[in-house]
Amino acid sequence: MVNGETTTDEIMEFMRDHMATKEDLKDFVRKSDLEVLATKQDLGALEHRLRDAFDDKLADFKGDLVVLMRKEDTKLCELVEILQNKDVITKEEAGKILGMQPFPQIS
Length: 107
Hints:
Elements: H1 8-18, H2 22-26, H3 31-35, H4 40-85, H5 91-98
Helix pairs in contact: 4-5
């Protein structure tokens, strides 16, 4: 440093130490690399499709569950009728059992 001022050689040395070379820049992401990344719109659309798929699957499972419960309810009704016919339970007890959830029999 001459008379408190920076010399051209010092500036060039600083630039040489701190500049990015072509080799350094090769490692940076290119615009074409960025094009394959998902945008916020892409992620939003994906989220919407996933939610729709989950809703559909949940509805299918709910329907399957209702079908299974109805089959079990039919078995229960048949069992109650058999027990009532064999005088194991009274008509009132049968009515109380059949009036329970999930599919109450109202008579």
